[in-house]
Amino acid sequence: MKKINFILVSMLLCSICFAQTRDRSSMVKLIDDEFKFAADQYKVLSKNIPEGQTPQSYANGQSINKDIKWWCSGFYSGSLWYIYEQTKDETIKKEAEEALKTIAPNQTYTGNHDLGFMMYCSFGNAYRITGNEAYKDIIFRSAASLTTRYNPKVQSIQSWNANKYWKFPVIIDNMMNLELLYWSSRNGADKKYADISIIHANTTLKNHFRPDFSSYHVVDYNPENGNVLRKATWQGAADCSSWSRGQAWALYGYAMMYRFTKDKAYLKQAQGIAKFILTHPNLPADKIPFWDFDAQGIPYAKRDASAGAIIASALLELAQYSGDDKKKEYVNVAETIIKSLSSDTYRAKAGQNGGFLLMHSTGAYPLNSEIDVPLIYADYYYLEALGRYKKWYL
Ligand code: GLY
User: Fold this and answer.
1) Does the annotation count 173 as an active-site position?
2) How far apart are alpha carbons 296 and 54 in whole angstroms?
3) Quick check: CB of 388 below 6 Å from ligand 1?
4) 15-27 burial, b if ≥16 CB within 10 A, otherwise e?
């Protein structure tokens, strides 16, 4: 009897091992295939960009490109660096270097809070991959430019300039720009950049979140005394709703801040945000969120593939800092997102979609802008998630 039990247990263990190996090799193949596809597809994309501009989207058969001061200008070169890192395709590397030259003047730009997106996703990856010190100088200068928007009375970096709607608006997205600051301090720039990023993260933690860890999109402050004037939205369905990409930025932002600081409050915050997202009754089975968790018309509302990609990448990082149960859950959901985004439902066919990788993102639904289209940052975070999965979990 003992012998039979032993044989049965051994057979069970063998079949588990076999299933795991098969699953592992299918993810290796999926990721490698996606990077090869991306290298070919971005050669199509590269033909659609006028001199001095950066690609943003594609709609009605037309490529949409933007001026370099647009918040997304760094994602094209960043995506190219991710593709180059995996494929070692020299044509892609050349294009990545050209794309950096196009956006380099942004290093002294102080007109918005997006310098982190613009200059860290691009030059940060370039420096990480090549070690070229000239890139580091540009990163430091960009960090200095970003800190000009910090107001010690508000204890935050101002996201957008004041206008008829806002006095000192801070959006949850701004958490993402702290990576530029903290990284710069860590790597030889002024320590005050890290201090500012911690103060900003703490102010956001205090004022942007609801008890269920969902976040408001915009908090407007009185710049004279730091009092909160209003909690509102710009791109979400309503002031009280949970705009999906905002939740994704928050998740990514606090996981990233924990990476740098090891402050348990940031870990707790990121895990709380993950719980809000992953247990939300409106999160679809393929784990690609609707554009807002409270969008009208669910389950027929538009999706936001970009939010899915950001969540996948963030969960893969958060899993690194979490205990076994949470780690397993986060990696499983990230894997589901990666598989969904790599499927025909979201991933474009070769040569189509204007050369972008992913379809079905939503930029700003209430502004009737970029609805159900490819978006450059969806591609960027998708590629980042693929790379993170390969580096950490295969
Ligand atoms: N940071 C702007 C957006 O997520 O649309």
Assistant:
1) yes
2) 33
3) no
4) eeeeeeeeeeeeb
Smallest CA-to-CA distance from 319 within 249, 380, 258 is with 258
> Atom 2 (ligand 1): residue with closest C-alpha?
173
d(CA 127, CA 384): 16
Our mutation pick for probing the ligand 1 site, out of 69, 235, 361, 370, counting the most ligand atoms within 8 A of Cβ, is 235
Which atom of ligand 1 has the smallest separation from the CA of 117?
1
Q: How far apart are CA 385 and CA 394, in angstroms?
A: 13
Q: What is the DSSP string of 273-317?
A: HHHHHHT-TTS-TT---BSBTT-TTTTSSPB-HHHHHHHHHHHHH
User: Could you tell me the sign of the dihedral formed by the alpha carbons of 209, 214, 216, 217, in that order?
Assistant: positive
Pull the structure tokens for residue 60: 């009605």
pTM of the model: 0.95
Tell me, using a 6 A CB cutoff, whether residue 113 lines ligand 1: no
E strand spans, the chain: 54-59, 62-66, 150-151, 156-157, 169-171, 218-221, 228-232, 361-364, 369-373
Per the residue annotation, which of 89, 114, 220, 292 is the catalytic one? 114
CA 379 / ligand 1 centre spacing (Å): 14
- Kindly report, residue by residue over 188-242, the tens digit of the pLDDT: 999 999 999 999 999 999 999 999 999 999 999 999 999 999 999 999 999 999 9
Which single residue is written with the structure tokens 């997304």? Answer: 72
Specify the ligand 1 atom closest to the Cα of 171. Answer: 1
> Band of the pLDDT at 14, cuts 50, 70, 90?
very low
Is 114 considered catalytic here? yes
Show the domains of the chain with their CATH numbers.
21-393 (1.50.10.10)
Q: Which of 113, 9, 32 is nearest to 389 (CA)?
A: 32
Nearest alpha-carbon partner for 66 in 333, 387, 369, 270: 369
d(CA 209, CA 173): 13
